[in-house]
Amino acid sequence: MKPGKEVTIYDIAKKLNISPATVSRGLQDNPAISKKTRKRIFDMADELGYRTNHYARNLRQSQTNTIGVLVHELNSNFITSVLAGIEKITTEAGYDLLIAHSSESAVKEAANARNLFHKRVDGLIASLAFDTTSLDHFKPFKEKGVPLVFFDRVEQDADNTVVIIDNAKCGYIATQHLIEQGCKKIVHVTASLKRNVYAQRYKGFRDALHDHGLKFEESQLIVNDLSEKAGVEAALRMLKMKPMPDGIFITNDFVSAVCMRTLKENGLRIPQDIAVVGFNNDAIGNLIEPALTTINYPGIDMGEIAARNLINHLKGISDIHQTNTIIVRSELIIRKSSLRKPV
């Protein structure tokens, strides 16, 4: 098979020594074809990299003018802003979007990747689920020369183009700010350290403590998901600590808001008793009292940059393979939740 050549049902039929009609019916899961034969057909289709023909007319030109987007969730202000940035660029370039989400499941992520591959998207923009440990489900795209851009949650060690912020630097800045406000025992509330974003923010947190001569204990790290329940549990856990922490760096604004509410319901003052810094600069940060100090994570910029690099590659303007890592600017936004000293 020549590199880049689209595999057809005739190629599969030839390999299996059966008729193209049998292959066609097997790929449609037609019960007239035995389960054993259908399995042979699907296995050979996977081996050869066959993609179901959903857009035959466009494929005469070897493109569908469609970009796939695979995200880990949709119920997120950050992801919504990223999608807005992607949509702005792709619409201007005349591309449609196919959006799928993994619901933080590596299994669903792999299934969605396969589906987008079979939909013959011209390129894919993706952010990984909590528990994704292998990128094997993206190999068919690479083998077919379909460009990939990963954003936010990525694998930086792999040979991929990624769009990220400097998470370690952001973690350091957030923690340093709390230290400058007089905090001595700072708790870090985060999610799975298997993901680059949380591992790097944790690294920044630890580095800032070390550089300022503050001791770290395991109790100062709380790892959970990013749910409302996690915010409540983190607050209740801190209320039992002796001595109580005087600062919290939380890796998500929604969890920060829930945590602050729970602490206040238990009689604590923010920031006088506990100073709080969040992450993402979601709208909720300005709606809670006191307003939340946070790291601005420019989702729209990230989406635009990821989409622009992908589109420029498809149009032959640039080659994304020549740039492995693109860093998007981010900054600390200081509000009342962390201010224990006069500005």
Automatic annotation (TrEMBL):
Kindly give the SUPFAM superfamilies that the UniProt entry links to this protein. lambda repressor-like DNA-binding domains, Periplasmic binding protein-like I
Q: What is this protein called?
A: Transcriptional regulator, LacI family
Which key words are in the record?
Answer: DNA-binding, Transcription, Transcription regulation
Q: Which Pfam families match?
A: LacI, Peripla_BP_3
- Please name the GO terms that the record assigns under molecular function: DNA-binding transcription factor activity; transcription cis-regulatory region binding
Q: Which organism is it from?
A: Hydrobacter penzbergensis
Q: Which residues form the HTH lacI-type domain?
A: 7-61
- Domain of life, source organism: Bacteria
